[in-house]
Design brief:
Elements: E1 7-14, E2 24-26, E3 40-47, H1 53-70, E4 77-80, E5 86-89, E6 95-102, H2 107-111, E7 141-148, E8 151-158, H3 165-180, E9 221-227, H4 229-239, H5 245-250, H6 263-272, H7 276-292, E10 299-307, E11 325-333, H8 334-339, H9 342-355, H10 358-370, E12 384-389, E13 407-410, E14 419-424, E15 432-438, H11 440-447, H12 450-453, E16 458-459
Parallel strand pairs: 6-7, 10-12, 12-14
Antiparallel strand pairs: 1-6, 2-5, 3-8, 3-13, 4-5, 7-8, 9-15, 9-16, 10-11, 14-15
Protein backbone atom coordinates (compact mmCIF):
# COMPACT_ATOMS: atom_id res chain seq x y z
CA UNK A 1 0.00 0.00 0.00
CA UNK A 2 1.27 3.53 -0.76
CA UNK A 3 2.26 5.85 2.08
CA UNK A 4 -0.62 7.81 3.54
CA UNK A 5 1.36 11.01 4.08
CA UNK A 6 -0.12 14.19 2.59
CA UNK A 7 1.64 17.53 3.06
CA UNK A 8 -0.44 20.67 3.62
CA UNK A 9 0.99 23.55 1.57
CA UNK A 10 -1.42 26.35 2.42
CA UNK A 11 -4.76 27.06 4.04
CA UNK A 12 -7.03 30.08 3.66
CA UNK A 13 -10.65 31.18 3.97
CA UNK A 14 -12.72 31.77 0.84
CA UNK A 15 -15.63 34.21 1.12
CA UNK A 16 -18.65 34.62 -1.21
CA UNK A 17 -18.09 37.26 -3.87
CA UNK A 18 -21.48 38.79 -3.01
CA UNK A 19 -23.03 39.28 0.40
CA UNK A 20 -25.94 37.00 1.27
CA UNK A 21 -29.48 38.33 0.98
CA UNK A 22 -30.62 35.42 3.18
CA UNK A 23 -30.26 36.02 6.91
CA UNK A 24 -31.06 32.68 8.55
CA UNK A 25 -32.36 29.24 7.61
CA UNK A 26 -33.95 27.11 10.31
CA UNK A 27 -32.87 23.47 10.43
CA UNK A 28 -35.72 21.09 9.62
CA UNK A 29 -36.78 17.76 11.11
CA UNK A 30 -34.63 16.12 8.42
CA UNK A 31 -31.60 18.33 9.15
CA UNK A 32 -31.57 18.16 12.95
CA UNK A 33 -31.00 14.38 13.36
CA UNK A 34 -27.81 14.73 11.28
CA UNK A 35 -26.10 16.93 13.88
CA UNK A 36 -24.56 13.79 15.42
CA UNK A 37 -23.29 12.61 12.02
CA UNK A 38 -19.88 13.51 10.68
CA UNK A 39 -19.45 15.91 7.77
CA UNK A 40 -19.98 14.42 4.28
CA UNK A 41 -16.61 13.81 2.55
CA UNK A 42 -16.68 13.05 -1.18
CA UNK A 43 -14.19 13.92 -3.87
CA UNK A 44 -13.15 13.44 -7.47
CA UNK A 45 -9.90 12.08 -8.90
CA UNK A 46 -8.84 14.00 -12.01
CA UNK A 47 -6.03 13.66 -14.53
CA UNK A 48 -3.34 16.34 -14.35
CA UNK A 49 -4.68 19.72 -15.53
CA UNK A 50 -3.50 21.02 -18.94
CA UNK A 51 -1.93 23.98 -17.16
CA UNK A 52 -0.01 24.51 -13.92
CA UNK A 53 -1.49 23.39 -10.61
CA UNK A 54 -0.95 26.92 -9.28
CA UNK A 55 -3.19 28.28 -12.05
CA UNK A 56 -5.75 25.58 -11.23
CA UNK A 57 -5.68 26.59 -7.56
CA UNK A 58 -6.24 30.24 -8.50
CA UNK A 59 -9.17 29.25 -10.72
CA UNK A 60 -10.67 27.07 -7.99
CA UNK A 61 -10.52 29.82 -5.38
CA UNK A 62 -12.19 32.32 -7.69
CA UNK A 63 -14.85 29.81 -8.74
CA UNK A 64 -15.51 28.75 -5.15
CA UNK A 65 -16.08 32.37 -4.16
CA UNK A 66 -18.61 32.72 -6.98
CA UNK A 67 -20.33 29.41 -6.13
CA UNK A 68 -20.71 30.39 -2.47
CA UNK A 69 -22.70 33.46 -3.52
CA UNK A 70 -25.29 31.06 -4.97
CA UNK A 71 -25.08 28.80 -1.89
CA UNK A 72 -24.80 31.30 1.00
CA UNK A 73 -25.79 28.70 3.59
CA UNK A 74 -22.45 26.94 3.12
CA UNK A 75 -20.52 30.12 3.96
CA UNK A 76 -22.42 30.57 7.24
CA UNK A 77 -22.33 29.02 10.71
CA UNK A 78 -24.84 27.25 12.95
CA UNK A 79 -26.49 29.04 15.86
CA UNK A 80 -28.93 27.84 18.52
CA UNK A 81 -31.46 30.43 19.66
CA UNK A 82 -32.76 30.78 23.26
CA UNK A 83 -35.74 28.54 22.45
CA UNK A 84 -33.47 25.71 21.33
CA UNK A 85 -34.05 26.01 17.59
CA UNK A 86 -30.92 25.59 15.44
CA UNK A 87 -30.42 27.92 12.48
CA UNK A 88 -27.89 28.45 9.71
CA UNK A 89 -26.78 32.04 10.02
CA UNK A 90 -25.83 33.15 6.50
CA UNK A 91 -23.17 35.58 7.71
CA UNK A 92 -20.61 35.12 4.89
CA UNK A 93 -18.04 33.77 7.37
CA UNK A 94 -16.51 31.69 4.58
CA UNK A 95 -15.19 28.16 4.03
CA UNK A 96 -11.77 26.56 4.34
CA UNK A 97 -9.61 26.05 1.26
CA UNK A 98 -6.57 23.80 1.59
CA UNK A 99 -3.80 23.09 -0.90
CA UNK A 100 -1.88 19.86 -0.34
CA UNK A 101 0.67 17.64 -2.05
CA UNK A 102 1.19 13.89 -2.24
CA UNK A 103 3.57 13.77 -5.20
CA UNK A 104 4.66 10.24 -4.27
CA UNK A 105 1.18 8.96 -5.16
CA UNK A 106 0.05 8.02 -8.68
CA UNK A 107 -3.46 7.63 -10.05
CA UNK A 108 -2.90 3.88 -10.36
CA UNK A 109 -2.12 3.71 -6.63
CA UNK A 110 -5.67 4.86 -5.94
CA UNK A 111 -7.67 2.86 -8.47
CA UNK A 112 -5.66 -0.33 -8.87
CA UNK A 113 -7.98 -3.32 -9.52
CA UNK A 114 -8.37 -6.08 -6.96
CA UNK A 115 -7.13 -4.03 -3.99
CA UNK A 116 -8.77 -2.38 -1.01
CA UNK A 117 -9.09 1.42 -1.11
CA UNK A 118 -5.76 2.62 0.35
CA UNK A 119 -5.75 4.63 3.57
CA UNK A 120 -3.94 7.48 1.82
CA UNK A 121 -7.31 8.58 0.35
CA UNK A 122 -8.42 9.65 3.84
CA UNK A 123 -5.69 12.31 3.76
CA UNK A 124 -7.37 14.04 0.81
CA UNK A 125 -10.10 15.50 3.04
CA UNK A 126 -10.18 18.05 5.83
CA UNK A 127 -12.48 18.48 8.86
CA UNK A 128 -11.88 14.78 9.52
CA UNK A 129 -14.15 13.11 12.10
CA UNK A 130 -15.88 16.47 12.61
CA UNK A 131 -19.43 16.19 13.93
CA UNK A 132 -21.99 18.36 12.18
CA UNK A 133 -22.88 19.98 15.51
CA UNK A 134 -19.40 21.56 15.38
CA UNK A 135 -20.74 23.88 12.67
CA UNK A 136 -21.60 26.23 15.52
CA UNK A 137 -17.93 27.25 15.51
CA UNK A 138 -16.34 25.54 12.49
CA UNK A 139 -16.85 26.20 8.75
CA UNK A 140 -19.82 24.39 7.22
CA UNK A 141 -17.80 23.41 4.15
CA UNK A 142 -14.22 22.99 2.99
CA UNK A 143 -12.34 22.18 -0.19
CA UNK A 144 -8.97 20.39 -0.24
CA UNK A 145 -7.00 20.09 -3.47
CA UNK A 146 -4.21 17.50 -3.39
CA UNK A 147 -1.60 17.38 -6.14
CA UNK A 148 -0.49 13.86 -7.07
CA UNK A 149 2.38 12.73 -9.30
CA UNK A 150 0.12 12.50 -12.35
CA UNK A 151 -3.21 13.94 -11.26
CA UNK A 152 -5.15 15.99 -8.72
CA UNK A 153 -7.82 15.14 -6.19
CA UNK A 154 -10.52 17.66 -5.28
CA UNK A 155 -12.09 16.74 -1.95
CA UNK A 156 -15.29 18.43 -0.80
CA UNK A 157 -16.39 18.31 2.85
CA UNK A 158 -19.82 19.65 3.88
CA UNK A 159 -21.80 19.68 7.12
CA UNK A 160 -24.41 16.89 6.99
CA UNK A 161 -27.01 18.93 8.91
CA UNK A 162 -26.85 21.49 6.10
CA UNK A 163 -26.97 19.17 3.07
CA UNK A 164 -27.99 15.69 2.06
CA UNK A 165 -26.46 13.95 -0.96
CA UNK A 166 -28.73 15.74 -3.44
CA UNK A 167 -27.73 19.19 -2.20
CA UNK A 168 -24.08 18.20 -1.75
CA UNK A 169 -23.67 17.17 -5.39
CA UNK A 170 -25.72 20.14 -6.59
CA UNK A 171 -23.16 22.43 -4.94
CA UNK A 172 -20.14 20.39 -6.07
CA UNK A 173 -21.45 20.26 -9.67
CA UNK A 174 -22.08 24.02 -9.66
CA UNK A 175 -18.57 24.68 -8.32
CA UNK A 176 -17.10 22.62 -11.19
CA UNK A 177 -19.42 24.22 -13.73
CA UNK A 178 -18.23 27.71 -12.77
CA UNK A 179 -14.59 26.60 -12.82
CA UNK A 180 -15.13 25.27 -16.35
CA UNK A 181 -16.20 28.76 -17.43
CA UNK A 182 -19.98 28.92 -17.07
CA UNK A 183 -21.26 32.50 -16.93
CA UNK A 184 -24.63 31.44 -15.53
CA UNK A 185 -25.39 28.38 -13.41
CA UNK A 186 -27.88 25.90 -14.87
CA UNK A 187 -29.61 24.85 -11.63
CA UNK A 188 -30.30 27.33 -8.84
CA UNK A 189 -30.85 26.05 -5.29
CA UNK A 190 -34.20 26.54 -3.57
CA UNK A 191 -33.92 27.78 0.02
CA UNK A 192 -37.63 27.66 0.83
CA UNK A 193 -38.32 26.70 4.43
CA UNK A 194 -42.12 26.66 4.12
CA UNK A 195 -42.32 22.86 3.85
CA UNK A 196 -43.70 19.91 5.78
CA UNK A 197 -40.19 19.41 7.21
CA UNK A 198 -40.36 22.73 9.06
CA UNK A 199 -41.41 22.20 12.64
CA UNK A 200 -41.60 23.97 16.00
CA UNK A 201 -40.23 20.81 17.66
CA UNK A 202 -36.99 21.26 19.62
CA UNK A 203 -34.19 18.69 19.68
CA UNK A 204 -32.41 18.85 23.04
CA UNK A 205 -28.69 18.11 23.25
CA UNK A 206 -26.54 16.92 26.13
CA UNK A 207 -24.04 19.36 27.62
CA UNK A 208 -21.21 19.88 25.14
CA UNK A 209 -23.31 18.66 22.24
CA UNK A 210 -23.97 15.19 20.80
CA UNK A 211 -21.40 12.41 20.46
CA UNK A 212 -20.74 10.18 17.49
CA UNK A 213 -22.93 7.06 17.65
CA UNK A 214 -20.36 4.52 16.39
CA UNK A 215 -16.86 3.77 17.65
CA UNK A 216 -14.82 4.78 14.60
CA UNK A 217 -11.86 2.77 15.90
CA UNK A 218 -12.83 -0.73 14.80
CA UNK A 219 -10.66 -2.43 12.14
CA UNK A 220 -12.31 -2.04 8.74
CA UNK A 221 -11.65 -2.87 5.12
CA UNK A 222 -13.00 -0.78 2.25
CA UNK A 223 -13.37 -1.89 -1.33
CA UNK A 224 -15.04 -0.68 -4.52
CA UNK A 225 -17.09 -3.28 -6.39
CA UNK A 226 -18.06 -2.42 -9.96
CA UNK A 227 -21.21 -3.72 -11.65
CA UNK A 228 -21.82 -3.30 -15.37
CA UNK A 229 -25.27 -2.62 -16.77
CA UNK A 230 -25.37 -6.15 -18.18
CA UNK A 231 -24.56 -7.74 -14.81
CA UNK A 232 -27.22 -5.66 -13.05
CA UNK A 233 -29.84 -6.58 -15.65
CA UNK A 234 -29.06 -10.25 -15.03
CA UNK A 235 -29.52 -9.65 -11.31
CA UNK A 236 -32.77 -7.82 -11.99
CA UNK A 237 -34.10 -10.66 -14.10
CA UNK A 238 -33.19 -13.15 -11.38
CA UNK A 239 -34.82 -11.00 -8.67
CA UNK A 240 -38.00 -10.84 -10.75
CA UNK A 241 -37.94 -14.62 -11.25
CA UNK A 242 -37.17 -14.11 -14.94
CA UNK A 243 -40.58 -12.55 -15.56
CA UNK A 244 -39.15 -9.32 -16.93
CA UNK A 245 -36.46 -10.70 -19.21
CA UNK A 246 -38.28 -9.45 -22.32
CA UNK A 247 -38.69 -6.00 -20.77
CA UNK A 248 -35.02 -5.91 -19.81
CA UNK A 249 -33.98 -6.79 -23.32
CA UNK A 250 -36.20 -4.10 -24.78
CA UNK A 251 -35.39 -1.19 -22.45
CA UNK A 252 -32.52 0.37 -20.52
CA UNK A 253 -35.06 0.38 -17.70
CA UNK A 254 -32.89 1.24 -14.71
CA UNK A 255 -34.83 2.33 -11.64
CA UNK A 256 -33.05 5.69 -11.49
CA UNK A 257 -33.84 6.79 -15.07
CA UNK A 258 -36.88 7.52 -17.23
CA UNK A 259 -36.22 5.71 -20.49
CA UNK A 260 -36.97 7.24 -23.90
CA UNK A 261 -39.12 9.89 -22.21
CA UNK A 262 -41.93 7.37 -21.63
CA UNK A 263 -42.87 8.55 -18.14
CA UNK A 264 -46.18 6.70 -17.82
CA UNK A 265 -44.66 3.40 -18.88
CA UNK A 266 -41.72 3.98 -16.54
CA UNK A 267 -43.94 4.66 -13.53
CA UNK A 268 -46.12 1.65 -14.25
CA UNK A 269 -43.12 -0.67 -14.58
CA UNK A 270 -41.49 0.86 -11.51
CA UNK A 271 -44.45 -0.03 -9.32
CA UNK A 272 -44.82 -3.51 -10.79
CA UNK A 273 -41.26 -4.78 -10.93
CA UNK A 274 -38.32 -5.02 -8.60
CA UNK A 275 -35.84 -2.39 -9.77
CA UNK A 276 -32.24 -2.84 -10.81
CA UNK A 277 -30.93 -1.13 -7.68
CA UNK A 278 -33.25 -3.06 -5.34
CA UNK A 279 -32.04 -6.28 -6.95
CA UNK A 280 -28.40 -5.31 -6.38
CA UNK A 281 -29.13 -4.32 -2.78
CA UNK A 282 -30.86 -7.65 -2.13
CA UNK A 283 -27.87 -9.60 -3.41
CA UNK A 284 -25.51 -7.56 -1.25
CA UNK A 285 -27.77 -8.06 1.77
CA UNK A 286 -27.75 -11.84 1.28
CA UNK A 287 -24.02 -12.13 0.67
CA UNK A 288 -22.82 -9.86 3.48
CA UNK A 289 -25.21 -11.54 5.91
CA UNK A 290 -23.92 -14.98 4.86
CA UNK A 291 -20.32 -13.80 5.27
CA UNK A 292 -21.03 -12.66 8.84
CA UNK A 293 -21.92 -16.22 9.83
CA UNK A 294 -24.51 -15.22 12.45
CA UNK A 295 -27.29 -17.23 14.07
CA UNK A 296 -30.23 -17.99 11.72
CA UNK A 297 -32.64 -16.78 14.41
CA UNK A 298 -31.06 -13.31 14.58
CA UNK A 299 -32.74 -10.39 12.80
CA UNK A 300 -30.85 -8.54 10.09
CA UNK A 301 -31.72 -5.01 8.91
CA UNK A 302 -31.08 -3.38 5.55
CA UNK A 303 -31.45 0.38 5.90
CA UNK A 304 -31.81 2.64 2.84
CA UNK A 305 -31.81 6.43 2.72
CA UNK A 306 -34.46 7.78 0.34
CA UNK A 307 -34.96 11.21 -1.20
CA UNK A 308 -38.37 12.58 -0.17
CA UNK A 309 -38.47 15.57 -2.55
CA UNK A 310 -40.49 13.74 -5.19
CA UNK A 311 -42.42 11.56 -2.72
CA UNK A 312 -44.33 14.44 -1.14
CA UNK A 313 -47.59 15.82 -2.51
CA UNK A 314 -47.09 18.56 -3.51
CA UNK A 315 -43.50 17.73 -4.40
CA UNK A 316 -40.61 19.72 -3.04
CA UNK A 317 -38.48 21.65 -5.51
CA UNK A 318 -35.99 19.15 -6.98
CA UNK A 319 -33.16 21.46 -5.88
CA UNK A 320 -34.53 22.18 -2.42
CA UNK A 321 -31.37 22.89 -0.43
CA UNK A 322 -31.01 20.96 2.80
CA UNK A 323 -31.80 17.46 3.97
CA UNK A 324 -34.98 15.91 2.59
CA UNK A 325 -34.28 12.28 3.36
CA UNK A 326 -35.71 9.51 5.48
CA UNK A 327 -34.41 6.06 6.34
CA UNK A 328 -36.30 2.91 5.30
CA UNK A 329 -35.44 -0.15 7.41
CA UNK A 330 -36.25 -3.61 6.05
CA UNK A 331 -36.02 -6.51 8.52
CA UNK A 332 -35.80 -10.28 8.14
CA UNK A 333 -34.50 -13.20 10.14
CA UNK A 334 -31.15 -14.36 8.83
CA UNK A 335 -32.40 -17.88 8.37
CA UNK A 336 -35.29 -16.81 6.19
CA UNK A 337 -33.24 -14.34 4.14
CA UNK A 338 -30.62 -16.97 3.30
CA UNK A 339 -32.93 -19.95 2.84
CA UNK A 340 -35.19 -18.12 0.37
CA UNK A 341 -34.22 -17.06 -3.14
CA UNK A 342 -33.06 -13.58 -4.23
CA UNK A 343 -36.60 -12.62 -5.20
CA UNK A 344 -37.81 -12.96 -1.61
CA UNK A 345 -35.38 -10.43 -0.12
CA UNK A 346 -35.58 -8.13 -3.15
CA UNK A 347 -39.36 -8.08 -2.92
CA UNK A 348 -39.18 -7.03 0.74
CA UNK A 349 -36.97 -4.08 -0.21
CA UNK A 350 -39.12 -3.24 -3.23
CA UNK A 351 -42.41 -3.17 -1.29
CA UNK A 352 -40.91 -0.95 1.41
CA UNK A 353 -39.58 1.56 -1.11
CA UNK A 354 -42.80 1.69 -3.14
CA UNK A 355 -44.85 2.14 0.03
CA UNK A 356 -42.79 5.17 1.10
CA UNK A 357 -45.20 7.75 -0.29
CA UNK A 358 -46.46 11.15 0.85
CA UNK A 359 -48.45 9.64 3.69
CA UNK A 360 -45.48 7.62 4.94
CA UNK A 361 -43.16 10.63 4.79
CA UNK A 362 -45.62 12.71 6.83
CA UNK A 363 -46.06 9.91 9.37
CA UNK A 364 -42.30 9.77 9.79
CA UNK A 365 -42.17 13.51 10.40
CA UNK A 366 -44.99 13.34 12.96
CA UNK A 367 -43.27 10.42 14.71
CA UNK A 368 -40.04 12.41 15.00
CA UNK A 369 -41.87 15.50 16.26
CA UNK A 370 -43.44 13.44 19.05
CA UNK A 371 -39.96 12.27 20.11
CA UNK A 372 -37.15 14.44 18.65
CA UNK A 373 -33.93 12.42 18.44
CA UNK A 374 -30.59 12.21 16.69
CA UNK A 375 -30.01 9.70 13.90
CA UNK A 376 -28.40 6.56 15.38
CA UNK A 377 -25.79 5.86 12.72
CA UNK A 378 -23.92 2.57 13.14
CA UNK A 379 -24.18 -1.21 13.24
CA UNK A 380 -25.29 -1.78 16.81
CA UNK A 381 -26.22 -5.48 16.59
CA UNK A 382 -23.58 -6.67 14.12
CA UNK A 383 -26.25 -7.69 11.62
CA UNK A 384 -27.12 -4.40 9.94
CA UNK A 385 -26.31 -2.84 6.58
CA UNK A 386 -26.77 0.88 5.85
CA UNK A 387 -26.98 1.96 2.20
CA UNK A 388 -26.16 5.61 1.54
CA UNK A 389 -25.52 7.85 -1.44
CA UNK A 390 -27.16 7.00 -4.79
CA UNK A 391 -26.35 5.98 -8.37
CA UNK A 392 -28.68 8.84 -9.34
CA UNK A 393 -26.24 11.48 -8.11
CA UNK A 394 -24.40 13.24 -10.98
CA UNK A 395 -20.95 12.60 -9.54
CA UNK A 396 -19.18 12.33 -12.89
CA UNK A 397 -20.61 15.68 -14.03
CA UNK A 398 -17.82 17.34 -12.04
CA UNK A 399 -15.82 18.44 -15.08
CA UNK A 400 -13.48 21.25 -14.05
CA UNK A 401 -12.49 22.00 -17.63
CA UNK A 402 -10.54 19.09 -19.08
CA UNK A 403 -12.79 16.05 -18.75
CA UNK A 404 -14.82 13.91 -16.42
CA UNK A 405 -13.37 12.50 -13.19
CA UNK A 406 -11.46 9.22 -13.30
CA UNK A 407 -13.01 8.00 -10.05
CA UNK A 408 -15.07 9.02 -7.02
CA UNK A 409 -13.73 8.43 -3.54
CA UNK A 410 -14.84 9.34 -0.02
CA UNK A 411 -13.11 10.11 3.26
CA UNK A 412 -13.24 8.51 6.67
CA UNK A 413 -16.56 10.10 7.66
CA UNK A 414 -19.50 8.00 8.87
CA UNK A 415 -17.86 4.65 8.11
CA UNK A 416 -18.46 1.51 10.12
CA UNK A 417 -18.95 -2.22 9.54
CA UNK A 418 -21.83 -2.52 7.07
CA UNK A 419 -21.78 1.03 5.65
CA UNK A 420 -22.30 0.92 1.87
CA UNK A 421 -22.32 3.85 -0.55
CA UNK A 422 -23.69 3.60 -4.08
CA UNK A 423 -22.05 5.57 -6.89
CA UNK A 424 -22.89 5.67 -10.58
CA UNK A 425 -20.38 3.76 -12.68
CA UNK A 426 -18.02 5.96 -14.66
CA UNK A 427 -19.18 4.45 -17.95
CA UNK A 428 -22.79 5.38 -17.15
CA UNK A 429 -25.60 3.49 -18.89
CA UNK A 430 -26.90 2.00 -15.64
CA UNK A 431 -23.58 0.74 -14.26
CA UNK A 432 -23.06 1.05 -10.50
CA UNK A 433 -20.09 1.09 -8.14
CA UNK A 434 -20.57 0.04 -4.54
CA UNK A 435 -18.19 1.32 -1.87
CA UNK A 436 -18.34 -1.46 0.72
CA UNK A 437 -16.98 -1.07 4.27
CA UNK A 438 -16.86 -4.25 6.35
CA UNK A 439 -15.04 -5.95 9.20
CA UNK A 440 -11.93 -7.68 7.75
CA UNK A 441 -13.22 -11.23 8.18
CA UNK A 442 -16.58 -10.30 6.63
CA UNK A 443 -14.83 -8.76 3.62
CA UNK A 444 -12.89 -12.01 3.19
CA UNK A 445 -16.17 -13.90 3.19
CA UNK A 446 -17.77 -11.55 0.67
CA UNK A 447 -14.80 -11.85 -1.71
CA UNK A 448 -15.18 -15.63 -1.66
CA UNK A 449 -18.97 -15.54 -2.12
CA UNK A 450 -19.55 -16.87 -5.64
CA UNK A 451 -23.18 -15.78 -5.77
CA UNK A 452 -22.05 -12.16 -5.31
CA UNK A 453 -18.72 -12.11 -7.14
CA UNK A 454 -20.15 -13.54 -10.38
CA UNK A 455 -21.74 -10.13 -11.00
CA UNK A 456 -18.65 -8.02 -10.19
CA UNK A 457 -16.94 -6.65 -13.29
CA UNK A 458 -13.89 -5.25 -11.53
CA UNK A 459 -13.27 -4.84 -7.83
CA UNK A 460 -10.99 -1.95 -6.97
Amino acid sequence: MPSSSTTIISKCTIYPDHKSSIKTLKLSVSDLPMLSCQYIQKGVLLSYPPYSVDDFITSLKRSLSTALAFFPALAGRLSTDPDGHVHIVCNDAGVDFIQAKARHLFIDDLISPHLDVPDCVKGFFTLDRMLSYSGHSKPLAAIQVTELADGVFVGCTVNHAVTDGTSFWHFFNTFAEICKGAKKITKSPDFCRDTVFNSPAVLKFPAGGPKVTFSGDEPLRERIFRFSREAILKLKSRANNGNFLEILGRQCNDSWKVVDGDTNSFLKNKAAEISSFQSLCAQLWRSVTRARNLSPTKTTTFRMAVNCRHRLDPKLHPYYFGNAIQSIPTLATIGELLSRDLHWGADLLHKNVVAHDDNTVRKGIANWESEPRLFPLGNFDGASITMGSSPRFPMYDNDFGWGRPLAIRSGRANKFDGKISAFPGREGNGSVDLEVVLAPETMDGLLSDGEFMQYVSVSE
